[in-house]
TrEMBL record:
Residues 331-411 are annotated as: Disordered. It comes from the Bacteria. InterPro entries: Flavoprotein-like_sf (IPR029039), FMN_Rdtase-like_dom (IPR005025), NAD(P)H-dep_reductase (IPR050712). The lineage of its organism: Bacteria, Bacillati, Bacillota, Bacilli, Lactobacillales. This is NAD(P)H-dependent oxidoreductase. Residues 1-145 form the NADPH-dependent FMN reductase-like domain. Residues 353-372, 401-411 have a biased composition (Polar residues). Residues 373-382 have a biased composition (Acidic residues).
Amino acid sequence: MKILAFAGTDADFSYNRLLLRFMKKHFKQMADIEIYEVGKLPPFSVDTPLSEQTEVWKLKQKVKEADGLVFATPEYDHGIPAVLKSAMEWLSYRTKVLSGKPAMIVGVAYGRQASARSQVQMRQILISPDCNTNLLPGNEVLIGNVRNTFAKDGRLIDQKAIERLEKSFEHFIEYIQIFKNVEKEGLNMAVKQPTISDAYINFPTGRLTLKEVQQIFSTIPFEIDLIDSTDHFAWYSDKPNREHVRNTASLGETVQECHPPMAVPAVMSIINSFREGKKDVVTRPLWMNGHRSLIQYYALRDVNGHYLGTIEFTGNVEYILNLFENGAWSKDATTGASKHDDNEETAEEMTVDASTGASESGNEEASQSSASDTEEANEDVDASTGASETGSVDAEDETADASTGASEAND
C-alpha cells in the first residue's frame, strides 16, 4: 500500500518531519510511506506561469498514485503553516485530485495541547468542497511536549504515544482498504461485464459485442488515448505494458492537468490545429523507454466533419523496423523472387494486384502526383512540435514529447 505523507513545514528542523520519518520506518511492513516536502512548491498564485508549475504537476501525479494521504502539521498562531496552506491551494484550485482520497492528520508540538487547533483547521480544509477527501474520522494523533517524547537521534520514545499512533495508523490502513475493495469490485464488474454482457454494437461493416470491443482494445499492438472536444482526458485503452502509463484518476482532467506544464503549449497547438480544421494528423517518431516508438495524433471527426476530439496512437515500432532492416521486403511476398532479379522484359510487364485487380505500376500521371504530394508533405513540418506530418524528424531534435514532457534526446 502506497502512502504519501506531507511534511507541512519548510523549516530546516521539524519534529513533525521526525514523526513522519519514524512512521516510515516503524510501519514499513504495513505500507510504503513517501515523505513529501511542501517547501519545494512555489507559493500559490493563480498568475503563476505554467513554466513554473512543474513541481506542482509532479505532486499531483504522486497524489493520484497514492492509496492514502497523511498530513503532518505543526501549529503556528493556532493554525497551520502558510506553506502547507499554499500546498492545499495548489491541490484544490481547478483540480479534483484530492477528491475521494483517504486522508489522515497527525501533528506534534511543544505544548501539552500539541497541534490540536491546527488539526481542527486542517480537518476543515480537507472536508471542504474543493478538497473533498475521505478524512479518517476520530483517531486524532496529538503528540505534545516533544522535547520529552523524542530522543536526540529522532526516535519517538514515548511508549503511550507510540501505541496511540499504531492504533490510529492501523485504523487508517483498514479505512483505505474499504475504499480499495469498493474500487476493485467496480473494476472487476467493468472487465467482466462492461455494461450488458449480451449487448452489441452494429457498425456499417459488421457487429461486435461489448466484450469483443473491449478485448480488441486490449489486444491491438498500440495504445490509444482520447481527449474529447472539450479538451478533457476522456478515455484510454487498457493495453498491457503501455508506453504512456495512464491512471483512471486522470480521467476527466483537462489537458493542462494531465500533461506536464512544459508540454501543454505543444499539445494545445496540435489540438487547436485539429479543431480549426488546419490539420488532421501529426506524426512524431521518437525514442521511448529505450526503443523506437511512433506517436500519431489524429483529429476525430463525425461524418459531417465536426470536431469530436483528438486521439493519440502510440506504439513500439522496433519489430517492424527490424523486419525492414533484415530485408523482409526485399523479396516479392507472392512469388519469393527478389525485386532485383527481374529482367528487363519482366520489369515492363504489368503486374496485377491479386486483392484489388489494380496494376502495381499504376498510372504514370498518378505516380507523378503522388510523388509531388510526398514532397509537399515532407516540407510541411508541425511548428508546435518540430515533427513532420509524414513522420520525418531531425535526428537531433530535442523537442519534448507532447504527452510526457520527456526530451527525445534523453538518455
